[in-house]
Amino acid sequence: MPFLEACRTFKRQPYIVLQPFLIDAILLAVLYGSHGWAVKSQWSSRVMLGIGIPSVFQLYSLPFTWFMLAAAVLWSFAQGGYISTLAAACRGSKLHASQILRANLRFGLPFLLLQAAMVLATSTVSTLLILLFGAIGSGAALLFFIAFRILFVFLEFTVVTDRVPFDAAFRRAFRSLKQHWPASVAMAAVILVVSGLASLAANLFAAPVQLVLILIVYDTMMSVLLLALMLTYQEARRYEG
Q1: What is the number of domains present in the chain?
Q2: Is residue 46 part of a domain?
Q3: β strands within the chain, DSSP E
Q4: Which of 40, 43, 44, 182 has its CA at a distance of 20 to 30 angstroms from the CA of residue 200?
């Protein structure tokens, strides 16, 4: 099973979670240093199916501010290196810090533009489905969101691992998803559930010490799940021949 293999891989290569820890620690220090953290304990939850680098701040429905803009830039410029570490760990190898940094710089701007385009596309389609079909449209929008995000997860994997342009990567990612969609959808559903539960916990327990604990647990759990998704992707690529 990909999840069990991911646990074993993470045990051998725990360094993959260092980038998420570091970026979340920097963002948390900036927020508390500027007295900008205003989240209160509440019953609220938000599901995530993003790839790139996991962050505890993605669990909150925060308004778009200078802080979120800076966070989005940091996440995008850490995404290439993070995906590279996932791929290397699944191959049983380890990347040096210089290799991770080069991958971050190489893919930072393309991933920032891709994330912006993806947010715009999903928001537009979801809004249209809900306006046109009401409650049924909400369900259809959720299914579209899941399928769309899995495809773009595989697209991001392909861009980094194969180092090809986005158009070629998109075609390869679509073939991989088509060949191995049941396992991919199942893994996406697990990520949705875990992120939703983590978001609920993060919103309920908003004290600083509790947030640091949730940060450590969430970044670790998501790194293991994303390792499992990378293993699923690599299996699909092998199946293609």
Answers
A1: 1
A2: no
A3: none
A4: 182
Angle of CA points 109, 111, 115, to nearest 5°: 120
Which tokens belong to 106?
A: 């190489």
Residue 98 lies in a domain: yes
Q: Would residue 119 count as lying in a domain?
A: yes
Instruction: Decide: helix, strand or coil at residue 101.
Output: helix
pTM greater than 0.70 (yes/no): yes
Which of the two residues, 34 and 87, has the higher pLDDT score? Answer: 87
Residue 70 within a domain? yes
H helix count then E strand count, the chain? 7, 0
pLDDT of residue 21: 94
* pLDDT at residue number 12: 93
Q: For residue 119, what are the domain limits?
A: 2-38+51-240
Q: What's the first-to-final CA gap in the chain, in angstroms? A: 21
The whole-number average pLDDT for the span 7-26 is 93
The Cβ of residue 115 has, within 10 Å, a number of other Cβ atoms equal to 18
